[in-house]
Write a structure and sequence with these properties.
The complex is a heterodimer of chains A (56) and B (398). Chain A is mainly alpha-helical. Helices cover 61% and strands 0% of the residues of chain A. Chain A contains three helices and no strands. In chain B, helix 14 links the parallel strand 8 and strand 9.
Chain lengths: 56, 398
């Protein structure tokens, strides 16, 4: 479980923006837009796994 | 008589919400949790409504319209087999596949040796619950997902794509179902969002009940730490599905907290602290919780009475509802109490007598919602549910 042990994941988060941000050497436009969209879509993955656990 | 379906909806919503706030509405709201009963009534098999959610939705809407209920759940046969089969969840037996076509889906408790979480994995779960779910639990609990480190397979990749798409499709369908219930019959969606107790999740989905009972003696601190690690995630998940208008409650389905599963002292130590915290956090944000107390919970009422006034709607299954009313009726709205065996094997007169006892005993000042003790499967007789509905509509007027 090497991937997950290195990352602290708060509720609502699978891959934190801070981790993903490191993939981009430079963001030419508004970083806050990129961050928000990343977090919104990441939240869907979080919803998926916790809904599988709770509802199914 | 309301002039339009929308006016009827608003009238019912006001009635339902007023009762849930432990106040007195114009009459007792009727909110039956009907599951496989809907299939029988609408002419489907249990397999059909479990496999094909559009048929389940149609059956639920037909019942809501024909019985003229105030509030229902859009699909009480909630576990849609299309999704569980897409990812190959191992802990279900589905009607028409592993179970007979006329049987409700069954949950398969794992053996202690093959629990979905091993006894020595508490630290992994506690350190990173979401990572543990994706990387350890899901590969073990499904037939399709491969563990970290093993080669990815086509079926592994498909399981995430199909599972995610299936969930979105189903949840969008449920949203549409709520709109159709409102438009077609003026029926209110009874709950929004889901909550489970951290201890129940450990028992149901990780360790199995027997394994968790062993852990209570061998590593009780780990059990407590795991409940504490899960609680913020269960709060987050509950909030993500909650009613934005804060009218209807979040459904909390309680499984292993009561006697004979846990003693009251085990409940106090292991089950209650984290569940209480979640309910209080939800209430701070204005969300009620439907405390669906499956089983006999009357020995636990002194702890439940600690919750903030009106923070829950307390659903009574096997406990004596008059006793419950004496203990917590001043603080919380109650629902349920009509025995399922009576609805399955009794007569309409038996059901009317039971409803009268409940209404006379607990509903005098409002704060009561009519329902069966437990979710109704296909053994509930149509004439008995009709008797419960019609008697309450006539006798339950304030």
């Amino acid at each position: 479980m090497t991937e997950s042990q290195s990352t602290k994941r708060p509720p609502g988060v699978c891959i934190p923006w801070e981790e993903k941000r490191a993939d981009f050497p430079k963001i030419s436009g508004d970083e806050s837009v990129v961050k928000k969209v990343w977090e919104d879509v990441d939240g869907l993955a979080y919803m998926y796994i916790w809904q599988i656990l709770l509802s199914f | 008589m309301p002039a339009s379906t929308e006016q009827l909806y608003q009238q019912r919503l006001a009635r339902y919400v007023r009762a849930m706030r432990n106040e007195k509405p114009d009459r007792i709201p009727i909110r039956p949790f009907v599951a496989e009963f809907t299939a029988k009534y609408a002419g489907y098999t249990v397999q059909e409504v479990t496999q094909d959610y559009q048929k389940a939705f149609l059956a639920a809407r037909r019942c809501a319209a024909d019985f003229d209920w105030d509030a229902v759940v859009g699909n009480m046969v909630f576990v849609w087999a299309g999704l569980t089969q897409a990812i190959g969840l191992r802990y279900y037996a589905m009607p028409g596949v592993e179970a007979p076509p006329d049987s409700g889906f069954q949950y398969l408790e794992p053996s202690e040796d093959n629990a979905w979480m091993r006894a020595d994995e508490y630290d992994l779960l506690i350190a990173d619950p979401t990572g543990y779910l994706f990387n350890v639990w899901l590969p073990r609990a499904t037939t399709e997902v491969r563990p970290i480190g093993e080669p990815a397979t086509f079926r592994n990749n498909m399981s995430f794509l199909k599972g995610g798409m299936a969930m979105l499709s189903y949840f969008h369908g449920l949203q549409n179902q709520a709109a159709l219930l409102r438009q077609e019959s003026g029926t209110v969606g009874a709950i929004a969002g889901i909550l489970k107790a951290p201890f129940d999740i450990l028992a149901d989905k990780f360790r199995g009940y027997k394994g968790l009972c062993t852990d209570l003696f061998r590593q009780p601190q780990k059990v407590q730490a795991a409940c504490e690690a899960l609680a913020p995630h269960l709060l987050q998940t509950a909030l993500s599905g909650a009613d934005p208008a804060k009218n209807v409650p979040i459904g909390l389905w309680l499984h292993r907290g009561c006697i004979p599963f846990l003693s009251p002292s085990q409940f106090e130590r292991h089950y209650w602290p984290t569940l209480k915290w979640i309910i209080e956090e939800l209430w701070k944000r204005g969300h009620q919780t439907l405390f669906y107390a499956e089983g006999e919970w009357n020995k636990n009422l002194k702890w439940i009475a600690e919750l903030p006034e009106r923070s829950i709607v307390y659903h009574v299954d096997r406990g004596d509802i008059v006793e419950v009313h004496k203990a917590v009726g001043e603080k919380f709205c109650l629902s349920g109490g009509v025995r399922n065996d009576l609805l399955a094997f009794g007569t309409p007169e038996d059901v009317r007598t039971c409803c009268k006892r409940i209404i006379d005993g607990v509903a005098g000042e409002g704060g009561y919602i009519m329902d069966a003790s437990a979710i109704m499967q296909d053994d509930t007789k149509v004439e008995n549910l009709r008797a419960m509905t019609e008697f309450t509509r006539e006798y339950g007027v304030y």
